[in-house]
């Protein structure tokens, strides 16, 4: 297949978009430079609707924009059950998790783990996030690089640079505030782009929606009775839904890129509103992105045929550059860039927060014991991680990796979901201790690997087993090792059983949390309440 050129008008649209995102980063540079509180938390200046848009854009990514239509094109809409799963955990987030994160005033999610289980669990949780998201950023850069370079004459190196390097630059400049407002712009562009694909795809078919519906009904492209059966050829919706609940628990309770947004609004109520906005946008995603796959299934049956041996991961950009008018196809390529960059920038800022707050400020504070206030180190982390991720993405592109949707879900279930089990043990049990949750985390991940590679379960089933395994193993090991918590630090206030109780907070600058809590050093402890 000969790759077509984009043409001057399409290039103009793409360049305008890229310059606009860069401009947002430049605009917020001065505010972001005032200190790490602003660089990572925006001093609570973000309105609820913008934070919700940012959570949506962060969790959507190029994986959703390209692989979700591919999933619907190749199979059906069964994975859409995952979009609904967010509503199953919103009550848990609102009642339990958000009050803990907000009242502790944490910059990273893993600061709670230190309050509850000590520094080892905090550092481990933070390190797992950093390692996973370096890989995730590489995949999110790789997807549009693979897709766009395969259907156009653009060099993969140029695509990776445009997506990755520009994300690094505006994240470097604008901090979390620049990232969030870029997410808002990018979220609007990617939603408009998806709507444009739907409109043009339907208009190009004789019979329009009638033809699409007839093809989908004839070939079981929506939901069929087989989707409710276990062990069949079709994806079982109950397993998709349950696995997505646990994947969402990981993302919304144990993943820094989302949890960080909870601290960027001015109040817990605003944080709740941001989750509602995000949930509504997740519902909108179902007809848009699954609809694209179903419409293109009909389009490439009736209007034209795909080239022989075509990699369906590039389905959306191929349609954009071959079937849409000049300028419009440029908008669609920009939308794919937007979907990738919104995720990349969020991950980069959050990785920087973890390395800065959980490692540098925790173990290498200023001589006076206070955290550093400058953002130079945080920006250096963004540059280094961005460079590594772009390099890995180019490697993936050269090796022509595919099936990235299931790959991404498998990685999430294996490494991320057990960490959500650690947070659940900390908040919902008093008996859980550091030895128990460490054992639960390791055994949960090992069990996830076993059922994935040996038993061959689906990624959603792996996520379910990983979470339940981490919780059960963690709780049982805690029972056998006793209620060991550091010093005489009372953890009751850090569980649901003491949400209104006073807690003694161990600051991250303490050289020895156990010794400090035991001695009751007033210079290294704070009094607070878990109380809305």
UniProtKB/TrEMBL annotation:
It holds the Pfam family SSF. Residues 507-519 have a biased composition (Low complexity). GO terms for molecular function: symporter activity. It is a multi-pass membrane protein. Keywords: Cell membrane, Ion transport, Membrane, Sodium, Sodium transport, Transmembrane, Transmembrane helix, Transport. This is SSS family solute:Na+ symporter. The chain crosses the membrane at residues 6-28, 48-67, 79-100, 121-142, 154-176, 188-210, 230-249, 275-300, 315-340, 377-396, 408-428, 435-451, 457-477. It is found in: Cell membrane. Residues 520-532 have a biased composition (Polar residues). Residues 507-532 are annotated as: Disordered. Belongs to the sodium:solute symporter (SSF) (TC 2.A.21) family. InterPro entries: Na/Glc_symporter_sf, Na/solute_symporter, Sodium:Solute_Symporter_SSF. The keyword Lipid metabolism does not apply. One of its GO terms (cellular component) is plasma membrane.
